[in-house]
Amino acid sequence: MRLDRPVLLGALAGVAALTWWLAERGPAEEARPPAAPAHVPEHFATNLRTTSMDAQGRPARALETPRLTRFLDDQTSELETPVLRVYREGEPPWVIRSERAWVSSDGYTAVLQGEVHISRDAAPGIRPVTIDTTNLLVRRQEDYLETAEFATLVSQGSRASGVGVQAWLGKENRIKLLSKARGHYEIDPSK
After folding, report:
1. CATH assignment of the domain containing 97
2. Domain count, the chain
3. Domain assignment present for 115
4. pLDDT of residue 34
5. What residues contact residue 159 under an 8 Å CB cut-off, 6+ apart?
6. Which of 127, 128, 111 has its CA nearest to residue 119?
7. What integer pLDDT is reported at residue 143 of this predicted model?
8. Distance between alpha carbon 86 and the CA centroid of its chain, in Å?
9. Overall pTM surpassing 0.85 (yes/no)
10. Does residue 165 belong to any structural domain of this protein?
């Protein structure tokens, strides 16, 4: 079977036109991998109160916040005006307040952001303590606190301040000023 020259030329012209048209449209879009999820909330809780217990079933820590937001991409959480209480048997609890907080995905590490106020009330044989600072790292399991910021510690008329604080609120119950420490200590003359 032999094709006529005009039919062959018409077919070639059609293929050429189709090729030109496809070339003008640009390369075919490549399949793109799905974009990583943005830092968007996965869920939230309002007026949250939670208490964790020690091995004997006594309160070890309690947390309150008007809003907790958990994020989908990294599973971290943000809290508004959180209040953390750390309990020790036979003593008033340590109460830690901040403007906001960020909590790691495993819940082990938190960064209390903005103004931070730490306090413990007085009890028989226990002096009251307040600490004011900013931007505090908290390692929950160890009841350990740390900041590189300026801090002020007040306890029954005595006052100390410095840059950087480490505090162990668990069994060790110790507070350490790291640098530029200054203090004024009042001694009770009746003792």
Report:
1. 2.60.450.10
2. 1
3. yes
4. 72
5. 152, 153, 183, 184
6. 128
7. 86
8. 18
9. no
10. yes
